[in-house]
Specification:
The complex is a heterodimer of chains A (659) and B (235). By secondary structure, chain A is α+β, with helices and mostly antiparallel strands. Chain A contains 23 helices and 23 strands. Among the domains of chain A are: 143 residues, Jelly Rolls; 124 residues, CBS-domain (Roll); 160 residues, 2-Layer Sandwich (Beta Polymerase, domain 2). Chain A has a four-stranded antiparallel β-sheet with strand order 1-8-3-6. The longest helix of chain A is centred in the C-terminal third of the chain and has 32 residues. Chain B is built from eleven helices and five strands. Chain B is 47% helix and 16% strand. Classes of the chains: A alpha+beta (659), B alpha/beta (235). At the A-B interface, α1, α2, β1 and β8 of A face α1, β3 and α10 of B.
Amino acid sequence: MHLILAFYLLSYMFRRDPHLYILITMITEDSINFLKGIPPFQFLDDSAIRSIAGNLSMEFCPKNTLVLTQDGPPSDALRVIKKGGVKVYLSNDDEIVIDFKSEGDSFGYLSLINGDKSRANIMAVEDTLCYLIPKNIILDIINQNPSFGEYYMKSFFKNYLDKTYKEMRSKNLLFKEGEKLLYTTPVRNILSKAVVSVLEKTSIKDAAGVMSEQGISSIIIKSAQDVPVGIITDRDLRDKVVAQGMDPSTSVSEIMSSGLVKVNAGSTCFDALSTMLRRNIHHLLVVEGSELAGVVTNHDFMLLQGTSPLSILKNIDRLQDSEELSAVRDRINQTISILLKEDVKATHILRIITELHDRLILKIIELSIKEIGDSHCPFAFFVYGAEGRREETFKTVFRCAIVYNENKTFCEKKDMADFCESLIAHLQHTFEKCGLPLFDVHPFGGEIPIYGDLSTWTKNILNSLNSGNENRVVTAKKMLDLRAIYGDTSIVWTLKDTLYKKIQDDARYSSILNESSLKQKSPVGFFRKFIVDEAGEQQEKFDIKAKGTLHIVDSLRAMSIANNIHETSTTERLNLLSKRGFIPKDFQTDIYSAFEFLLNLLMQAQLEKREAGLNIDNIIEPEKLSMLEKKSLKEVFQILPGLQEIAANSFKGKEAAAR
Amino acid sequence: MSFLSDFFNKSSKKKGNIDSKEVADTWSGTIKKDTPIAECPFVVFDTELSGLDVRKDFIVSIGAIKMTGGTINISREFYRLVRPDGEMSKKSVEIHGITPGELVDKENLGTVLPDFLEFIKDSVLVGHFLNIDLKFMNSALKDKYNDKLANLALDTHSIHEWLYANGVTFKKHYLGGSTKTDLFSIAQRYGITVDTAHDALNDAYVTAQLFQRFLYFLHADGMHTLNDLLDIGRA
């Protein structure tokens, strides 16, 4: 009885006081669901959302009316667009469009918090309904959720990047629980066996006995002082002992590999893996502090992952003819997919992809040369463009060229040309047979071949750079990111050195590099499924490479070459430029995050296309991006002009110094 | 029951047990007619009825939402199902899809009415074809308290008729207008999202959004005070 009374009393009281009792009707529920789906509200807890919903009002602004006026009174509420869209612009002499905002976007935050006059005009470009959240509610929310306010601040990008990536990954439907983030697992988690070691005086026979007894493929060799000094593996026993008929009573120190490559137990499996890839080793020592904790092998990664970049590498190394090439390429792409679905940084994935592609192309060159016979004249293959920068994503075209040294007396130009022609024809044939993407054999257009001696290459690249022909200029810029992958690599170094010096010495070239990086204009933002530029133009598709990553690549290339930095990788260029004081440390981090983010977005889009069986390109459709992704991308667009400015200033400084 | 009525008496000094005189005192319109529209408190409301005959039919539910000028106060809503005193006809069940069973545990009009009056205070009432709702509301108030609503009231249907004939900015914006008169045709014509689930509150919400749009165009055509609105849309 008392209970029932109390219930009546309570329900009666709540019903009476509109502040205590929020009627949850469909209308309120609608607004709650709406807010829960958009950033930064999506990160608030239920009670915060409800307190907003309990104080919400709604405003109507017909098309072409001003919601807030530049230099007008501060906004009284945070407005969230429920339906329709607005244009944010400045009207001084000309109208400069800063942004477009549509459903789910909010505006008026800064003016609300600071009490400043509105900084821009905001005009409805369609009949627009806005939810209004009063100032006091917003202040309460910020008090309890400081990260809420950050969403509207300049620092948004860094603070929300993790959330954006998380969302990006969870969006990927193909993500399976079983594939879970193995590349982020610390190495110590996959160490299963205790370290087995023998002393360096031990005979090969005894060591092999221990290995077979324990069922292990490698054994650590220790000095009398208990310090690890080497390792022997199955392979050493096979290649050095059995194959060469070595006396098994010889001590293990004779056959051990003594350059011990170690990794910290806390490093990720990814790091371990990339060390192994780089050093081309199959066993890696793991140390916990100064103690030896174990050995990881490719087999461990296989157990974890089912597939490993290392085993692909092995596959490539074993290839005896070109028949299996296309299968290898498929496996490379599969690996990219897996890495992407995991928590691996885009720039790291690129490193792995590049490594695998390098090996693949190297193998094909080797096989081809074996068939057509080698040249007497020293020559080298170099890759350029994204490959040259070690930033290859899903491969669509091979960018590779041959350079030889014309000054060697035994080199006949005619012979060399014939050799290159037949080598390239052979490679092209192999590629075609395996369904691999083909070489770009005339990257400059016209008849200029992708082989030549040093002076021809220097001339071709610099002339193209100065040609005024947009395609040729683009190719020339790609060529400046050259990297040797086969043959006499010193020739490639000479070529690079010559090119960079000429550019440094001739303001004509450096200003072309610099100007072409300045010409790039970033979009300002998004409007629904469109991407919008400063002039208010809208486009449904967006080349994220051309409008995004290449901005960064171009600016950093121009600055690096001007400052005699020979690195081609964009992140390395960034590092070195920052170390030498050309780019402020803070800004370096911003640019790095921006680059990383753009690559991630690009690869995710490519992955989706690949899995849908579509052509792989660099296009993303704003319609497919989440609000958080759009917001991050917008933030990136705002960072890029800053880099251009730095590049421009550093160029001006150099010019002034030259005069 | 005696406990509740005691509580009611004590807690609500202002209203007490509503008798006819007090209703008249409390709810007579105190809003000045020269109030700027932007500051004007409105309550947009709608009722669902068991039929259209005020002698036989009764109110099934009441929905209302507050506005201040052209701003809808989303969270200031009122929605109540009402348990009828009489029998519900088969026909009314079919129309509203509300069965007598659903209403058994609901309050009767005697309880809902004071709450509604408390909600609207002296706001200007707004509705689409509001006269029908007012007729039923007043009939109920007459039964219970021998009184009627004294609030100023506006009919969105009349306002629409006026805008359709005279609204310069309105006609330019919508390139003409709707000749239809029912709430949902009009709402759709002017770009208001209409939920398929109709109840008194959702209908009031749609009406509020319609009124919100109308207010903007009336303002553009020089209407600034409540009195201007009453001239063209008084219910």
